[in-house]
Amino acid sequence: MNESIFASILSSGALSAGTYALLLGTALVLGAMIALIYTIRSDYTKSFVVTLALLPAMVCTVVLMVSGSLGASLAVAGTFSLVRFRSAPGSAREIAAVFLSMAAGLACGMGCPALAAVFAAAVSLMLLLYTVTGFGERRSGDLRRSLQITVPEDLEYGGIFDDLFSEYTVRARMTRVKTTNLGSLNRLTYDITLRRPGTEKAFIDALRCRNGNLEISLAERSGESEL
Q1: Around 10, how many Cα atoms within 13 Å sit in the side-chain half-sphere?
Q2: pLDDT tens digit string along 64-88?
C-alpha cells in the first residue's frame, strides 16, 4: 500500500473550500458510521447517537480553525476538558465511542482523511466484533454478587455475619457502610462470591435471622461504571 495516502492534504497556505468540503464530508460519514455501529446491541438514546454522528465534524472544524495557533489550541483544549464535568457519567462503552469519534475528527482536522477512514473503520469493526461475539462477558456460572444488609444502628455488625459468609461464600468484603432512616439504621454493602449456585434464598433467610428481618438486597455485580 502506498503510504502517501496517509499524508496530510493541507498546504501551508489558506484552506480551500474544496479541501474543507472533503474533510468535513469525511468526518460526517465516519461519524454516521460510528454512531450506527454503536447502536448494535446497545442501550442508547437518540441524543447520544446524534452527538456521536456530529462530533467528528465539530472536532475537525475546530482543529482546522486553531491550526498553527498555540494560544488558540490551549484554549480549545481547556474547553474540551470541561465536557467531562458538564456531562453525566457514562458507561465504558460510551466513553470509548466518544473517544473514537473525537479521534476520527482530529485525524480529519489534521488533513488526513484516508488515515481517519482506515482508523475509524478498523476500530469500529473491532467494536462490532467484540459486541456480537460477547467478548469479555461474564460466564453464565459467575457467582459474584453485591449484597446490601440493613441492620439496626445499635447492632454491633463487625463479625456478626462471618460464619454465614464462611458457609455460603468463598469471598466476602465490606465496601461501604451508610446510615439511613435518620441514622436509626445502617446499610452494609459487601462484594461477595457465592460458594454454590442456587443458594441465594437460604443465604438471605439466614441473614434475616441476624438483622431483625430488615431489608436485604442481593444483586449481580455490574462493571458498567468502572471507568
Answers
A1: 19
A2: 888 756 566 666 666 666 555 545 5
